[in-house]
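Thread: "does anyone have the structure for this chain?"

Original post by V.I.:
We have the sequence but no experimental structure in hand. Need at least a predicted one for the grant figures.
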Amino acid sequence: MDAVIAQEQVRAHWDRQPCDSELSTRERLSREFFLDVERQRYALQPHILECLSWIDWSGKRVLEVGAGIGTDARRIIGAGALYTGINVDRGSAEATEQALRVFSLPGVSLQRDARSLDLPDGAFDAVYSFGVLQHIPEVQRAVAEIRRVLKPGGDLLLMLYNRTSINYALEIRFLRKLGLRLLRLPGMIALLARLGLPRAKLERHRQIYLERGCASEDEWLGRNTNGPDYPYCRVYDAHEARQLLAGFEILRTEIRFFDYRHWGVLGRLLPRSLRRALGRCWGWHRIVHVRKPAARLSDPARGGARA
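Reply from O.Q.:
Generated one for you, tokens below.
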């Protein structure tokens, strides 16, 4: 898919439904709504709070790339950061702005494209981006912009979807493709729904399959991340993550998050200890903490120096 078209489709998706906004049925953008989303987000993904502790945010100028509706932003601000958050779409930017207002928190929420940040060089001590870069078609441009606005010696904490995960290698690449063909059978959607799988998504996957046939690998990945109509996503193994972050020093990488919800009743029956163990070995989230070099480094291969 053309990168410009894909980016516009991604923007439109989040504008219609900002990330995590589907988690609560409370009055939209009310205090209760934000607290409900926060509770559900961290109950399902407690590792987010642990990974936030990898950086001391106090007094730091922080940029969040892809703030969603400001859930993690509130934690970062609460830890003492001087916060700026960006979203590619207006709906999410306004939701984050409202969250800061509702909780009387200092900070700035902007609508910006991560590929072209209208922000000064070296303006931030740290950048945080949880589960966003894999949704940017021209991701190298976004990474270059993050590196530009990050001061020398500054930290970048990010999450990418993990290619070597149960979610991708087993579910998306194998089981869901098999399941898609089974959806044509009478009564199959009703059966899977009784096992705890989302009926509306199953019906939409079936409809798209009947209308368009088999999807390309890229299309199939997009449809299996943020819903059957989602346009673009990527996954990263360790080598691909290192390539993406080649201009940074990698400090720490961890794998987390086995999403038991994908396995319906079976997933809910798994002990929490087993869910955590599966997440640490073959989880969906590849979390990476890197640092922009503080000084120019010698590059023997080029016989010179690089930033």
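V.I.: this helps a lot. DSSP finds 13 helices and nine strands in the chain.
O.Q.: and Residues 3-165+235-294 form a domain with the Rossmann fold fold (CATH 3.40.50.150).
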